[in-house]
Amino acid sequence: MVEKRKSVPWIVFSRLLGLLCFILVVYLMNVLAPAVKEPIFHQVLALVNDNLVLLVLMSLIFLIGEVFNALPFPIDLAAPPFNAVGAILLLVFLFNIFELIDVLTGEDVSPVFRGFSLILYPLVFFIVLVVGYVGVFRHLLPELVKPKEEIPPGKSWSEVREEFREAFADFFTLLGEEVRGKRS
User: Fold this and answer.
1) What is the mean pLDDT of the chain?
2) How far is 78 from 179, CA to CA, in rounded Å?
């Protein structure tokens, strides 16, 4: 089964539209912030505002990776490094979320994750890079990666319902025959 790739203009349009909607929601949250008295809302909004550049940059890097991935070989070889850098930025944002959770809960869990960051950053980068290149080269070697056999479609819900109806009818018929047989 050949995987259909999305068109580059559609990828760019849909991702930039999503990014624009996200920025609009953040803007509206900032406009409505003075009317909201909930301190958690303000802390989450501060997290988003403080990381807005990071989130936009991460989105653009993932967009570039997706555009390269949509192009044919050998141009798609540029996609995995962009996706790996985007994954690192995502990890940075996740660490910032853990810090906010520490503030909200009063716990001190994020330093544990920060301690692993020296291992996690290169590990995540390497894993995303390797998986990305496996995906790129998978398209070049279709005979080595054979597609799974197609599974025949299952029964419809009406067929399942009919089988249950027949099973209950058989059960009650046999039960009735047993009851009649014991009375005779």
Assistant:
1) 83
2) 75
